[in-house]
Design brief:
This protein is α+β, with helices and mostly antiparallel strands and about 180 residues long. It has one domain: Endonuclease Chain A (Endonuclease, Chain A, 2-Layer Sandwich). Helices cover about 45% and strands about 25% of the residues. It contains seven helices and eight strands. The protein has helices at about 10-15, 35-45, 55-65, 85-100, 105-110, 145-165, 165-175; strands spanning about 1-5, 20-25, 70-75, 100-105, 120-125, 125-135, 135-145, 165. Strands 1-7-6-5-2-3-4-8 form an eight-stranded mixed sheet, with helices on both faces. The N and C termini lie far apart (about 45 Å). It comes from Saccharopolyspora kobensis.
């Protein structure tokens, strides 16, 4: 059974309350989150970013990892990466430094593995938060808890993790190709 959860406090609670592992599948080429608009504009202009806008997330990741919980994600990158994805390669260094396991899978590889074309979080391998977007902005979450459906997401998680490369490996390889 699924239920719709509006963005905000309820979704944030999912990100705080997992026990062991929170894993994100992120497959859009661009996200238009209001908190990212000004930092992205500064990056595009070549200006310094102190990442203050990202600090709450980085602190949450660091706290979780200190407590022995894992936060990880696999980002699907277009070929070539979108401008947003190039920005995320820079910003992602802070995520990794905070303790998040960030990996990359190319879009063609994800497609060949039959991985989904929608974003989601998998919490403790027992609940899925299927993320919905409107005009590249987060619009809400559908919670999936039925074992059969969750099992499909666990299978996708396993395939993605097996084939994705760490963010810094992808950055290095991308730099050599350019």
């Amino acid at each position: 059974m699924s239920s719709w959860v509006l963005p905000g406090a309820e979704f944030d609670e999912l990100l705080r309350s997992f026990r062991h592992r929170a894993w994100r599948w992120e497959c859009q080429g661009t996200y238009r989150q209001p908190a990212e608009a000004e930092p992205w504009r500064r990056w595009r202009a070549g200006q310094h970013d102190d990442l203050a806008w990202l600090r709450p997330w980085l602190d949450q990741v660091a706290s979780a990892t200190r407590a022995g919980r894992l936060i990880a994600r696999v980002r699907v990158y277009r070929e070539p990466p979108t401008e947003y994805q190039l920005w995320q390669l820079d910003v992602g260094r802070a995520n990794v430094a905070a303790g998040e396991d960030v990996r990359v899978l190319t879009e063609s590889r994800a497609r060949s593995l039959g991985l989904p074309a929608h974003d989601f979080w998998l919490f403790d391998e027992a609940r899925v938060a299927l993320m919905h977007f409107e005009d590249q902005r987060f619009a809400g979450t559908e919670i999936i808890a039925s074992p059969g459906e969750v099992n499909q997401y666990r299978n996708w998680w396993g395939a993605a993790c097996e084939h994705a490369v760490p963010l810094f490996v992808y950055r290095h390889d991308l730099g050599r190709r350019r």
